[in-house]
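Sequence design from tokenized structure. All designs in this work follow the same two-part layout: the structure record, then the generated sequence. An example of the structure record is given first.
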């Protein structure tokens, strides 16, 4: 097997780390299976990536889009075009949501890896307030202020260049915690918290929708206080204390964040809480813990049915525990079957066929 030399240009931020950690973890297997060896280059935007990164004799360049943040549009295009003169270029979209703003760079790369994709690709032809399909809904529903309209993709997009990648569930911190439990959720036991919804809210007035959406979830949970034991607050506590709360919770309510997928979703699974979340039926992603009524419980995006769903699953313990076990198995299967390597295999196959 011939050696395939690669460069992985990565950002240092946590959300970005979840995207590059699988490369590091599977470094030996990537070389053994595919002959892929890579050098890792860290970029801290707004650094001058054109000055700091030397492509050398790479065959493939994997680059996170956040590493281009310090450049104006023309500079981004120039860097990618220069890279393509020497190697195949694979852009790793770091956005947490199905946001399509980065698709503008599609024509300047060989492949584009997205954490999650809209199942109905025609939806990418619409413009969304604040650029996201869920922010658009919340802004319209709440009659809120909007920062910008965006995210509509260009006509004639080459869908063959777009590959479904892996989401924040692959973060090193999450996998280490889960592996430490032998990829099993914390047992049900005698949990004393009925509903848990400790979530952050934004301080940025231009992102009013983020706070509005999350406060809507907390408000619904608070309506059950006095009858059930609930935690519904945006007060931040130390991480281990927060995880202990989840380990002691029957239900974890997880609103959308900047993206539809939140790290809290996977923390709930690891801690053995039933994940209740706004419906995720509009997207596809991996690891996929979003199978309705099988691995999580979907609710309406305005949380109108949240009370009803919480009450039902608090009473139906056996059904609740069955769903939490299914979620645990689904998440564990992603790691045990090394699905990340399948994604890389598809990327390399597509590059080879170009």
């Amino acid at each position: 097997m011939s050696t395939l030399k690669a460069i992985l240009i990565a950002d240092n931020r946590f959300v970005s780390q979840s995207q590059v950690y699988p490369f590091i973890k599977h470094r030996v297997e990537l070389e053994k299976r595919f002959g892929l060896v890579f050098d890792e280059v860290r970029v801290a935007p707004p650094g001058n990536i054109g000055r700091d990164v030397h492509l050398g004799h790479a065959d493939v360049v994997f680059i996170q889009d956040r590493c281009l943040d310090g450049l104006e549009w023309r500079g981004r295009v120039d860097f990618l075009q220069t890279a393509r003169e020497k190697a195949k270029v694979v852009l790793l979209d770091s956005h947490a949501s199905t946001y399509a703003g980065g698709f503008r760079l599609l024509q300047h790369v060989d492949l584009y890896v997205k954490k999650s994709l809209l199942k109905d690709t025609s939806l990418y032809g619409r413009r969304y307030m604040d650029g996201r399909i869920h922010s658009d809904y919340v802004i319209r529903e709440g009659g809120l202020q909007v920062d910008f309209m965006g995210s509509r993709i260009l006509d004639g997009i080459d869908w063959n260049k777009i590959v479904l990648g892996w989401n924040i569930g692959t973060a090193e911190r999450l996998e280490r915690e889960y592996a430490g439990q032998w990829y099993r959720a914390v047992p049900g036991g005698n949990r004393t918290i009925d509903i848990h919804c400790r979530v952050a809210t934004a301080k940025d007035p231009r992102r009013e929708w983020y706070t509005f959406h999350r406060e809507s979830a907390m408000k619904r949970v608070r309506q059950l206080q006095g009858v059930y034991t609930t935690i519904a607050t945006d007060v931040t506590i130390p991480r281990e204390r927060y995880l202990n709360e989840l380990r002691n919770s029957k239900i974890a309510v997880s609103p959308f964040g900047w993206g539809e997928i939140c790290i809290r979703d996977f923390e709930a699974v690891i801690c053995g809480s039933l994940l209740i979340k706004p419906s995720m039926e509009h997207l596809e992603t991996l690891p996929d813990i979003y199978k309705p009524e099988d691995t999580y419980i979907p609710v309406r995006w305005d949380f109108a049915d949240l009370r009803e769903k919480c009450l039902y699953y608090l009473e139906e313990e056996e059904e609740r525990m069955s769903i939490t076990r299914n979620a645990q198995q689904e998440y564990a299967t992603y790691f045990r079957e090394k699905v990340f390597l399948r994604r890389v295999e598809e990327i390399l196959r597509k590059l080879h066929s170009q």
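The longest strand covers residues 4-11. We note this feature because it recurs in several other targets discussed in the main text.
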